[in-house]
Every structure is written in C-alpha cells, then in structure tokens.
Amino acid sequence: MSSRARTDSAHISPSAHYTGYVWYRHRLSEPDFVTGFGRFAHGVLSPLTWGMRELAGLDLEHILLQRHLLLDERLRAAIEHDGVCQVVEIACGLSPRGRRFCRRYPRLRYLEADLPAMAARKRRLLSRAGWQDERHQVREMDILAESGATSLAALFAGLNHGEPVAVITEGLVNYFPLAVVEDFWSRLAGCLAGFTQGIYLTELYPDLRSHPRYRQLRWGVDLVGRLTRGGYWLHYRDEAEIVAGFRDCGFVRVAVHDPDRAGVQLPRLKIPSLLRVIEARVC
User: Fold this and answer.
1) How far apart are CA 85 and CA 176, in angstroms?
2) What is the mean pLDDT of residues 168-189?
3) 137 vs 125: CA distance, rounded Å
4) CATH topology for 3-281?
5) Least enclosed by CB within 10 Å: which of 4, 108, 129, 231?
C-alpha cells in the first residue's frame, strides 16, 4: 500500500474518545479513561442521538453497549472454556476491557495495540494509574502495515505461540472498505495459525437491506463518515455472506452472534439489532 493509504486509519481516533465516555457513563470503566474531548463530543451529539432514538428507535448508546458487552461475554467464554491465557486487543483506543479482564483473571496476559498517538496516550493512562505491568502492555500497531515494526507479524512476535490466543477488534472494521478489511483478516488468520489455538472476536454492521430502519441506518452511516473525516462501510448482506467471507480469509470455523438471540443479558432496542458479533477460529 502507498504511504498515504497507511495513514488513513488515523481518522478513527475521534470516535475512540466518544466511546470511552460512553463506557464510563455506563459504569464499565473508570474516570481515568475519560477525556475532555470525549465528554464534549458526547454532549454535542446528545440532541442528535436523542432524535435518532425517539424518531427511528436507533439508540446509539445501546448499540455500543450491545457490542461491548457481547464481545466481553465471548472473550470470557474463550478464557474459561478454551484456555485462552493471552489476549490482543487491536485498535484498543480508550477501551477499558484490558483493565477489567486483567483484574478479573490474574494470570491473563493482555496486549493492547493502536496507532502511535493513541498507543502513547493509553500507555500514559495505564502507567499513571499504576495498571501497566508485565501482564498488561501497550504496543504501536497499524492494521494497514504489511511489514515493519507496526505490522501484525511484529505485534505477535513477542507472544507465546505454544498457548491459545484471542484477538479482539472493536469499532474498527466498518471504517474500511471490505477489500482492505479482508486483506487484514487474511494476514491475521495467517498469524493465528502459528498458535495452538487462535480465536478472533470482532463486530460488524452488515448491509441489512431488509431491516425496517435501513434508510435511517444509511443516513446514520453517512453521518458517522463525516464526523470521523472518513468513510463507513456496511459489510455483507446476511449471515451466509459473513461466514463465507471469513472462510475465504482463512478462518475455519465462524459463528455469527446476533444480540437479539444472545443468551446473555444485553440492552434491547425497539427494533431488530443492526449489529453482529463474529467469533472466527483458525482450527
């Protein structure tokens, strides 16, 4: 990819501040994860999100909570039932998940990764709070880098390939065209194949054209693209396309989790969920 293409992922960072404040508002994180910009963005967007909720049933915060909590639940299952003892959260932003899971599982190793500016911020945050140690670290990484110090291969080099690993991306893949995302997934599957067991957890918003709020969804997608100074793409039209797409990238087993059918307690929307959480395995 060109050097210009490698810098395109920087446009995601503003949304990390907003979601960081949402996690705090709903008692999923601590004050250390809140930024002034995140608090400001939440206040500025509140009238808009209120209108979307009242007029179209699109509750943005409930959608974000569905995403976060369902990913948490699948990670918990991977740790307790699949023996995962090391976790990599890519594009970690201001996610509090690493802090919560390291506190809950004393033997877990948690590696967070993001672009240099956000990684430095997260590293300072953890260090100031006294949470950064040998088990909980932050590295620089760019999903568009195919080689070099910020590539996937470099990130995974320091992990124990003789133990199961889980990888998480949250709030990432819909910011990129499908071809770019599938290239990343293919490289990720190749890296995970070197472990005794590799599990990838992510979410995506499919192009659900039969959804009763599809028109409003398209409007919201365009708005997100403008706010983040980039694009926002909907990937795949149904569960079958999702499974086929991940298998084409090298994942052998693919489960698609719909929040409306999840066996865990999640915030509910007045309309069918727009979200799907994917659990993909290389063996």
Assistant:
1) 30
2) 95
3) 11
4) Rossmann fold (3.40.50)
5) 4
At 211 the pLDDT is 75
Domains in the chain: boundaries:
3-281
What is the rounded CA–CA span in Å between residue 271 and residue 60? 12
**Residue pair 216/52 in contact by the 8 Å Cβ criterion:** yes
What phi-psi label fits residue 130: left (phi over 0), alpha (psi between -120 and 50 degrees) or beta? left
Interhelix angle 214-227/13-25, rounded to 10 degrees, is 110
70-120 pLDDT, tens digit each:
999 999 999 999 999 999 999 999 999 999 999 999 999 999 999 999 999
Give the model's pLDDT for residue 9. Answer: 52
Q: Which tokens sit at 87?
A: 């976790």
Q: Can you list the positions of beta strands (E) in 8-91? A: 86-90
Tens of pLDDT along 141-178? Answer: 999 999 999 999 999 998 999 999 999 999 999 889 99
The whole-angstrom separation of Cα 193 and Cα 214 is: 37
d(CA 70, CA 222): 25
Place of tokens 């949402």: 22
Q: Are 234 and 206 in contact (CB under 8 A)?
A: yes
**Counting beta carbons within 10 angstroms of the beta carbon of residue 12, is it exposed (0 to 12), middle (13 to 18) or buried (19 or more)?**
buried
Neighbours of 234 (CB within 10 A): 18
First-residue to last-residue Cα distance in the chain: 29
Extract the tokens encoding 28: 């999923």
